[in-house]
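Re: Re: ligand-bound prediction request (bumping)

Still looking for help on this. To restate: I need the protein modeled with iron/sulfur cluster bound, output as structure tokens. Inputs repeated here so nobody has to scroll up.
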Amino acid sequence: MKKVYIETYGCQMNVADTELVFSILEKKGYSRCEDISQADVIMANTCSIRDNAEQRIIGRIDQFVLQRQKREIIIGILGCMAERMKEALLSSGKVDIVAGPDSYRRLPELLEAAGEGYPQIDVILSREETYADISPVRTDKNGVSAFISIMRGCNNVCSYCVVPYTRGVERSRDASSIVREACDCVQKGYKEVTLLGQNVDSYKFEDVDFARLLEMVAQVSPSLRVRFSTSNPQDISDEVIEVMARYPNICHHIHLPVQSGSNRILEKMRRRYNREWYLERVAKIREIIPDCAISTDVIAGFCSETEEDHQATLSLFREVGFDAAFMFYYSERPGTLAARKYPDDVSLEEKTRRLNEIIALQNSLSLESNRRDLGKVFEVLVEGESKKSAERLCGRTGTNKVCVWDDTSHKAGDYVKVKVLDCTQATLLCELAE
Ligand code: SAH
Ligand code: SF4
Ligand code: F3S
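Reply:
Sorry for the wait, this slipped through. Here it is.
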């Protein structure tokens, strides 16, 4: 049996795709391998979202090549960077296979041909492929949490973003195959599923929309936690928020990327909402689910961003009081609308300063958010031992906060009640409440 090692970069969609790839390859007699020095096939499932993501992978390919100097192996590049860079990756002579996100069914034949010494490339994007019939080989070490892809691609053309080019057009997966996969997770002992898509609120398969799909998955089992990501502020509907409120097993957390607090910048980004709309959606979420956590993504220093625009982002952060955020500075991506139309005119120094200001503000908001939880009791799903001690467990609340507490009587996959005694900006320090 040939052993396959895969390194996964980028978003959760890539984690889910790597699990599909393992499944496709296992059916053809390959086995999964976690030790790179033992592998016959070394692959990276890659991300193109920002330049530094790509640079990291380019550096990694050189280390793969060092392995190939020691023994005969095949090197493959999968995912978004394969799709974006295409032949350029092959012509480096460093890799044997380049396969885009819609080509994974062909990997066994690509591997075979590459094994005979012929470099292979398949970067054709599909309008239909959802891999609906493939049951993924789960890679979560604790066996607690599983990702379920509900759609692929993206039909928004946010001007800064490479995803529509690397992932192709949006398509929703057959709802019954999603429910089947959730049932299968329950049978295998998983306690949490996260439904994944670039814009889950635009899910539509026949007459099933996202609100209905969420309800169908929540009904699979009351002890299965349901999460989802990502919600686009322009599309998140009242029905989705109402379904969340109706089912106790749907986690009270919404990831709602805002990108900027300035209407002028939002328009240039081609986001299809403005600040007022965003704040109204936040108000609606809090009206229907008062304890709902809200997290976000933001980009500092987009083309033409002024100090005033930046201040508008900071004030929006203060106004919403996000529980968590992923924060980036703008990285121009070749071929996107912004790269073609707008000069990348905020200096790196200025981008970094603005980003650091946002990070400092968010750190204090995260701490405030955690302080509001002091004294509260939460049901958490145990994920495993804490990093620091085998006598401490860690797990997350429905609101996606990490808790740690002393405990030698529970294990990964248990639900336990904990009381919050203290906190840092990143963690709730708790004790068992029962
Ligand atoms: N579909 C999701 C976003 C997926 S990409 C959504 O629309 O919200 C994840 C995050 O990466 C984005 O939310 C954005 O904040 C960031 N991002 C995307 N392109 C970027 C770029 N060119 N430079 C910096 N950050 C970027
Ligand atoms: Fe990119 Fe916008 Fe699609 Fe998100 S919604 S993946 S930011 S184009
Ligand atoms: Fe990166 Fe592709 Fe995801 S560009 S963020 S791996 S969709």
